[in-house]
Amino acid sequence: MAAISGHCTFRSHQFPLSFTVPVASSSSFYGEALRSSSVSLASPPSVHRSLISCQASSAASPPSSSVNGTAKGGMKDFLHISDFDKATIMKILDRAAEVKAQLKSGDRSFAPFKGKTMAMIFAKPSMRTRVSFETGFFLLGGHAIYLGPDDIQMGIREETRDVARVLSRYNDIIMARVFGHQDILDLAKFSSVPVINGLTDYNHPCQIMADALTIIEHIGQLEGTKVVYVGDGNNIVHSWLLLASVVPFHFVCACPKGFEPDKETVEKAQKAGISKIEITNDPKEAVKGADIVYSDVWASMGQKEEAAHRRQVFQGFQVDEALMKIAGPKAYFMHCLPAERGVEVTDGVIEAPNSIVFPQAENRMHAQNAIMLHALGL
Description:
GO molecular function: amino acid binding; ornithine carbamoyltransferase activity
Number of strands: 11
Keywords: Transferase
Distance between the termini: 48 Å
Mean pLDDT: 85
Pfam families: OTCace, OTCace_N
Organism: Gossypium hirsutum
Oligomer: single chain
Strand order of the largest sheet: 9-8-7-10-11
Family: Belongs to the aspartate/ornithine carbamoyltransferase superfamily. OTCase family.
Structural class: alpha/beta
Shape: globular
């Protein structure tokens, strides 16, 4: 185990940051990934671990900007939240609220995607990601094509660079939900149309954009709020950290020792000096004064053989009624789903009046619609 100390700033104040990150088991992985990657050290190394869920365990850090570097005829990829500045992120969220309101009103006249097609690559199964993207694209006039795990076998049956160049000749936009983060980078590098990151084992930017939209709807703003994530330091945590490097708020990750988020990603958020960042092993202390308490499964798909061990290690990290009481009466509960009720969260917490899990799930579609509008320059 290696201890890392540093500081981060939040509204011109400095806060100490000290936590422990497991490097003994992962340092060789990062080193090998860097050696085998064709991108620079500023870009994420290849990642090929079979980790999946709404999220997955930590992997390597993202670049500071989109891998293809230049806009594609005015169009842009959406790979990491930190590829964009605060003004752009807030503009996308404002657009999401506007388009959501129009759809909710029953008005279907707004059809910016009319005549456009989207290829959706799924290397892993999904309910929310598929339905939210496909339905959202259809409601705005477009046609989405589902390509499941057996349709392409990207990287096995056909090289990713070839898939990108073929699909971008047929379609106006590509969305991909994949395992290795390098796969999404390669798609973006070789595609001539925008590529949207529907999830990788490193990050899940569309989910966090939906979460931010949900927080704004219920609290009135994202800036200055305290978001406390309780559980594994996985790709959901990485995405929150990348958002915290752009928009100022207080983010706390409470996780068992040995399950902290990627060290480089924490340092990226810390060095940005935008938000207050805390990594702790004490969930009870972490949730005090929280505006949002956030949870996720302890064992993602690809980690199910570790489920029994993780249930032992994660004892004390369940979000139950007692933990929510410590958080306070104004705290909302969020979960990216799917949830294992009775494991990382109790049924009572999910069904409580202050749970906003299902508005959060709905907002995947609205946030993604706005992301695609931005990517296509519409």
